[in-house]
Each structure stands twice: as C-alpha cells, then as structure tokens.
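Subject: two folds for Thursday's group meeting

Dear M.,

Sorry for the delay on this. The cluster queue was jammed most of the week, so I only got both jobs back this morning. I'm pasting them in the order they finished. Each block is the input sequence followed by the predicted structure tokens. Could you check whether the formatting survives your parser before we put anything on slides? The first protein is the one we discussed after the seminar.
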Amino acid sequence: MRANAGMSAIEGDMPFWARRKGVYFYCAVWHIAFAIVAIFMRSALGYDDALEAYNVQSFEWSYTPRNPSLYDWILYGLDQLTGSTAFSAPLLNYASMLACALLLYELARRVIDDRRLQALSVYSLSLLWTIGFDFHPILTHSKLMIAIIAATLIVIHSLGEERTLSNYLVLGALIPLGLMAKYAYGLFLAAAFLAALAVPKYRAAVLDRRILLSALIAVLPVAGVLALDATKSQAIVGTTIGVLKTGQDASLFDKSIQLGRAVTIFCMPFGVFFCWLYFRTDRSAPKPGIRDESFPRLTGLILLIGSAAMLFWSFGIGSAQVRPRYFLCVFLVFPLFAFMVLDRYAVPARAARDYAILAALTATAIFALNLTSRLAPSETVCRNCLLSVPYRQLGNELVARYGATPILVGHDIFEGGQLRAALPTARVTTLVPKPYRPPARTAEHCVLVWQPGDDIAPDLSRYGFTAQENDTVTLKWWAPLLDNARSTTFNMQELPQGSPPCL
C-alpha cells in the first residue's frame, strides 16, 4: 500500500463528500447538531451523564472503582468553565466523538487509496449501533476512550513506517491516557501488541529497544495514580471480576444467544450496507500494483484477537454479561479494516455514492428521531422519555424555595446527578451510600427531593426518618409539538441539619 494513499485521484475530481474538506464539514455538522440538541433541548441528563454529574462535585484522584478518573477530571474542569454538567458533558462527549472520527479519517488517508472509500470508512462509524445510536443517550468514558484508541492507531501505523523517538514518546504518553480514560483500553492495547508481534513490520517496532521508553512513560503515571489510593487497585480487580463473572449461571444456549445478539447489534446496520457495496463491486480483477498489506493484517488480527477474547469471556469464564458496547475497544477498527479490504478492487463510483446516500439517510433518520423525542416526548416516540423529565425547570423552583446553595438529597446517584445538574451551586448527597461523597459544607436548608413513584421508604428508614411531603411542585414538560404534554411531580422534605443524609 502506497504511503501517499489516495494521491491517485485528483482532489478536485472527487465529489464534495469524498474530499477532505467535505469529510471534515459533514463530521462537524453531524456532531454539532447532536450536541445542540443535547445542550439546549434536554431537560435532564442521560443515565451515565447523571452519574458523572454527581461525581464531579469536587476534584478527586478516584471516584469509583468501575471506571478510571480521566473523564471525570476533564468534566470537572469543564464544569468550572460552563457552570453546569448539562453543558459540559455534551461538549466533552461530542468533542471526543468528533476527534475519533477525524483521527480515523486521517488514518484512512494513509492506508486506503480510493478517496471515496476513505470518506466512507469514517461515515460508517455512525452505522455502528453503539456509536450511531447508543452514544447519544448513554455512555461517557467510552467516548473519550475511542478518541485515544484512534490516536494510538495512527501512532502504531507511523511506527510501522518510521521508527522515530518522537513516535515512541507519543505512544508512551497515549497509553496512560487510554488506561485512565477506560480500563477497556487495556484490551485494545493487548490485542494490538499481540497483533503487532505477528506482522513483521510492526514486530520490528515492538522489538526496538526504544519501546522500553514508551513502557516507562506509560507505567509511571498509572502507578502514581494507583499509589495515591492504595485500596483502589484491589477495588478495581474486585469490580472487574464481578463484571466478568456476571451471569455465570445462565445456560450455554442463553450465553450463545447473548453473544450473537451483541455482535449482531454492534455491527448493524453497517454490516448489511457494506455487504451490499461489496457485492456491487467487481472482485474478479484486483487493482494492479504491489500493495503493502501490513496494516490490514494488523487490524484484522486485532479484530480476531478481540473476538477470541469475547468468546473466552462468554464460554471460558462463562458470562452472559456481554453487551454490544463492550466490543467497542477492539471493533472500532472494523469499518476501516473492511474498506481496506474493499480498496483492493475498483469500487464503482455510483455504488460508493449510493452507499454515502444510505449512510446520510440513516444518520438523518437517527437525528430526526432524537430531535422529535425532545420536541414531542410522547410514549410512542421515546417511552419514558427520560431526557425530557423537567429537572432543569426544577432547579428554578428549588432556588425560589431554598436559595442557591442548599444541600439536596437524592434517592440514588442517578437522582443526585440530575439534582446537581439542575442546581449546580448546591451540594448533593444520596440516601443510598456510594463510594464518592462530596466535601461537607454548611447550608441553611437540607432538602430531600424525590418523585412519588420512588421507593425511598426503606432507605430513609435506615436514618430513622419517614417520608413526608412538606412541599410539592408539579412541572409540565417542555414539548412544543404536543398539545397535552406530560408533567412530573416532585416531593420535597426538609431534613434536620447534621443528620446523616445531609453530611
């Protein structure tokens, strides 16, 4: 494969969507459009965003054993600038996703000749279910992780082309960032390392003594963070084992169905669209010329090793916990690998255009659904429509009753995160104990906030209290396209200062 991939086609002869400026433009429009909806049209946070909103009330070295802290550190910093996680979480999430897309596109320009296929490889990210659909309402650390994986792939490719000290230094810096973004980055790193050993060009980069410098740079920050909290490493191991062993009692059939379902959902609809394009391409006569297949082999092996790891998880460890999003760390390269394989042949320009249209229509349909669920949050469109529950409006009511700096108590960490986003200047705690507890401070009011359907009585009774509706407020949902919008009632109960939930 030539180093100047794509130079065989003249930029001006390409349709706008296949040019570099076009790819940057459409990627930016896609991410900015979803970010605008998330920032200005949601009345509540997504589930994972709410968990992070609760955690980042202060800067801590560690918040929870389940995830590392890099995402939280960045979110904490953005919160100081924007004033609310309701703004900073979408900014961080979509900036990470955009960075991933553009980095993978720059990598595609190096390893794919056909400029149309370069563009399609990055547009196809939105056709992976986890990225195109799941990423909008849920997931946080995973978004930061994929941006770092994309950067790591570029550095690995660069090391295959030229083993420079700067490349080894950058690799060493990316590894701790990836591990502190999400522990699943370690699976990608292990798969990439094993794959590199099997490909001569990259094996030479791994066996170069300068890789020790990368390892040293990588180990020091991670070891330093773990050393600051000696119990964290044990908690990480315990949490990981717990996740891996979830569902061990399930039958072999159920485990097989869960694994097959996870793989299928993750790859759809990209798998169908790509097969359609593949069979529209004449594969009887590959393009002439010598091609370097090192990077396609590397990414193919990463996919193979990742698949083997998931098989071992499902049938070796015996877990029924496998979810589509768990494939992200190793299957992120799937579209790039698929288009590198297809690049061996002359793909008809019309077929590539039709694929681009299908990708655009799919992305538009998902955006339209996302937008409609905010403008008309009916049960038909989004069932419980969590993102439209009027927590943002609740913030104004809380300020009117208790001032700008009360202590708010939510039932669990999810409710706590919603309250914290609704009133960022409040200190928020939870009835259900969590590893993170915000720093104590005095306040004139300590208020428990819950909805009538919440089962708070058992948790409240542990502190010797019973639920009392001292005050209630019913708020109508923001739904400009609905004549009869739903409403939500919030109950508020003042708790004694100094009582355990308020500490």
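Second protein, same layout:
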Amino acid sequence: MVTKLEVIRRRLGLSQKELGYKINQSASTISQIERGFRKPWPKIRKQLAEALGVAEEELFENDGTPKVTDEDFITVPVSR
C-alpha cells in the first residue's frame, strides 16, 4: 500500500526534499507522513494539499492520517 500523498507527489515529479522545501519542512518529515509514521498538524495538511494542487480531503482521512491507495504507479525520475 502507498499513500495518496506519495502517488500525487511522484506524478508531479517532486522529490520529498522538493515538496518539503515548498512547505518549509524536511524531506524526513515528508517521508514519515508518507509512510504513516506521523500525522501532520492541520496547517501542514493544508500546505501539502495546496503545494500539490489537490483538496486536503483527497490526501487525508478526517483524523489526519494519510489516505492509502492500492493504485499502481510507475514513475521515472526526471533528471534536473
């Protein structure tokens, strides 16, 4: 299983570091949220959704845990 957050981030071609930079958080924080080891504060949930251009409800359950999906995705990192 993978979180919707990770699927959308990867589809947009963003690394955890790049997403973290956009919301002033570390890549480690993004990783912990994606793996479900950390429930982000409401402010961070909102920032993540805005940075990814989606509704907060698409990424997180009502209690703040990241939504998981069985959606398959294969991405090829783009060299920058």
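Two things I noticed about the second structure. The mean pLDDT is 90. Strands lie at 2-3, 68-69.

Cheers,
T.
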